[in-house]
Amino acid sequence: MRKASPTYCRRFLWKPWILLLLVPLLQSCLVVKPYERPELELQNLYRNFNNNDTTTLAAIPWPELFSDPHLRNLIETGLQNNLELATAYQNILIAEADFRQGRAAFLPSLDINGNASSSELAENSIMGRQFRGNDDNNGPPPGRVQQYELLGNLSWEADIWGRIRSLREARAAALQQNQAAYRAVQTRLVANIASAYYRLLALDAQLRIAEQTVETRQNSLITITKLQRAGNETALAIKQQEAQIYTARILQVDLKQQIAQLENRVSTLLAVPPGPVARGSLQEQLQEVPIAAGVPSQLLRNRPDVLEAEYALISAFELTNVARADFYPRLALSAEAGFQSLNFSSWISSASLYNSIAAGLTAPIFRRRQLRTNYEINQAQQQQALLNFESTLRTAGREVSDALVTYQAESEKYELREKQVETLTTAEDYANKLLVNGYANYLEVLRATDEKLAAQLELVNTQYNQMDALVTLYRALGGGWSREE
């Protein structure tokens, strides 16, 4: 390409009808490339994956997965009111408007322009001497030139290299990217509300355990007091038992604080004033749910954040196409028609009709490396989008693997903790009976009650962790939204 010192474009003006005949031929010479999904390593995306069953938990609609009516109401309120979700929806509207503009780029533009001007010409100028001799009684005074125009302008750029088409595809991908981002916010919102709800139920269960513990320890205090009066226990045992009661009451206060704070968090998710959250009980949530992860390739169409990352890649790919097409000439066609007159009285008349048609081919020659720089930037941004797509997909696979491992581990621990609580409950009962009959001291009773309390609290935590792992797996697989929405 020959360089020149100034920046300029070489314009070729041919007969319009010749260029019109060339448009179909030039449009077949597209320089843009079609998007093809890159090769991805999907088989080993899940840890220890050896299953070809396409059944996936993500296919279950959230109203079916979460059967608790209180939880359903909370999720429905959140989907209606949540501010982050509303913001994501506004981003969709912005992208839709931009897409409609891009779709209209194939259409010609039409403008209308009306103009009236009056000029007093210098007597010593060429035009002034010519118009000074004007003695037309119907026209302006000699030396004054008046011009009246009413013109319509039509212009159209032929998409001979696919540049405009790529711009449209980039905007379409940007729209789909924003739609996927909205669904990602939706799935995260559903999961956050469900997780917070289950945590509230767990805290309620732990609060009931703490209340029962206070009652049990108060009864034990009465027993120890009687034994002390009978000379079988010391005052130290009474003080130790009183301290244990205070410990249980402190636990009650802590749990109530956590409940209030979590209710405030749920209210924020729902965009409602802070306050109590209507809910059921932890035991009501027990249900058999088939744990099915499907196959890794399903993440490409189920996970909204993976879809969002791929649409971002498609948009970047199409913008690279646009940058590549900018190196080639652009063909523009224009037409103008209307009325032109020097006299207002004859402005709108057949004698004042005016029309013109033109076609131009503009080729970039020297742009101070602007086109090359723009192309290189778009290539780098496309590579960034590709890396982000692959990273998002790998993160999705890790999250699924983590959730599966967590759910399995918490399920096993739950069975063991149930047995542990049962054993410690029996041990506590034995300790109390031995204390009454003088075969055990108060320290053995304190140790038995402490161990039982800790095991009961951990049993509730394990049950919550199991349910939370199910929610996490559901979101990790792409559950919580529907393609019909």
UniProtKB/TrEMBL annotation:
Keyword Metal-binding in record: no
Keyword Membrane in annotation:
yes
Give the molecular function GO annotations. Answer: efflux transmembrane transporter activity
Q: Do you know which PROSITE patterns this protein is assigned to?
A: PROKAR_LIPOPROTEIN
In the bilayer, the protein is annotated as: Lipid-anchor
According to the UniProt record, one GO cellular component term is: plasma membrane
Subcellular location per the Swiss-Prot or TrEMBL entry: Cell membrane
Main subcellular location of this protein, as a coarse class = membrane
Domain of life of the organism in this record?
Bacteria
Key words, A-Z: Lipoprotein, Membrane, Palmitate, Transmembrane, Transmembrane beta strand
Which NCBIfam families does the annotation name? outer_NodT
Could you say which protein family the record assigns here? Belongs to the outer membrane factor (OMF) (TC 1.B.17) family.
| The protein's name in its UniProt record | TolC family protein
Q: Which organism is it from?
A: Pontibacter diazotrophicus
Lineage, broadest ranks: Bacteria, Pseudomonadati, Bacteroidota, Cytophagia, Cytophagales
